[in-house]
Amino acid sequence: MKSNGKAAANKKQKKDALLNTAFDLFTRQGIHNTTISNIAEKAGVAKGTFYLYFKDKYDLRNRLIARKASQVFLVADRALQETDLQTLEDKIVFLADHIINQFSRDPVLLRFISKNLSWGIFKSQLMIVGEEDDVSLPSIIDEAFRTSKVRYKNPEVMIFMIIELLSSCSYSPILYQDPLPIEALKPYLFESIRSIMRQQEITPTAE
């Protein structure tokens, strides 16, 4: 058992080294200018080891995007648990604000996620991230909707629209203060999120 545990820890350590190294290289010199040999050498593993974990550098990129995006969300969710907010609408706005603040503190992460994140990549990689890294973002989202007193027509579409809105509308205001600094834009952004959610509400039918 100890041997299996040590092997699993060693495997995770190598995978984390590849992911962390790739993030550093991707954000400094770009994905296209980074080779698998670059990643493996800097991570301190054999090139063949890379293929034990990833199909190619684009598979690694997709896993890395999902992991980084999930980590940002989970940090915001932990902060949310310290509040007494009741409605899902208020909770989503709180999460959006917290995520924006994280991006404001880490422009490198913002550039990487905003430039590479797509709904297809994010959705397809979430379960892989959850299985391998114990990140339970899908279950957090499911639980939020399950416990909400308000029901929505299509929660997946609604979350897609909110993620796209956050990703696209935060980039220029954070990095270039254009068309407004992000703090000045937040009221418009949050009102848009509330509008999206209210349009998706299912009105209870009278019995």
Features of the shown structure:
207 residues, mainly alpha, Arc Repressor Mutant, subunit A, Tetracycline Repressor, domain 2, 2 domains, 10 helices, 78% helix, globular
Instruction: Please report which band the strand proportion falls in: under 5%, 5-15%, 15-25%, 25-35%, 35-45% or over 45%.
Output: under 5%
Q: Count all strands and give the number.
A: 0
**Alpha-carbon distance between the two ends:** 58 Å
- What CATH calls the topology of the largest domain is Tetracycline Repressor, domain 2
Helix content: over 70%
Radius of gyration: 19 Å
How many individual domains?
2
Determine the number of helices (DSSP H or I, runs of at least 4 residues). 10
Q: Secondary-structure element sequence? A: HHHHHHHHHH
What is the CATH level 1 assignment of the largest domain? Mainly Alpha
Which outline best applies? globular
The average pLDDT is 86
Largest sheet: none
CATH architecture of the largest domain: Orthogonal Bundle
Uncertain runs: none
- What structural class should be given to the helix and strand makeup? mainly alpha
In short:
The protein has 207 residues and is an all-alpha fold. The chain is 78% helix and 0% strand. The protein has ten helices and no strands.
Task: Walk me through this protein's architecture.
With 207 residues, this protein is an all-alpha fold. It folds into two domains: 1-54, Orthogonal Bundle (Arc Repressor Mutant, subunit A); 56-199, Tetracycline Repressor, domain 2 (Orthogonal Bundle), CATH 1.10.357. It is 78% helix and 0% strand. It is built from ten helices and no strands. It has helices at residues 2-29, 36-43, 47-53, 57-80, 88-105, 107-116, 119-133, 137-147, 155-176, 182-199. The termini are far apart. The mean pLDDT is 86.
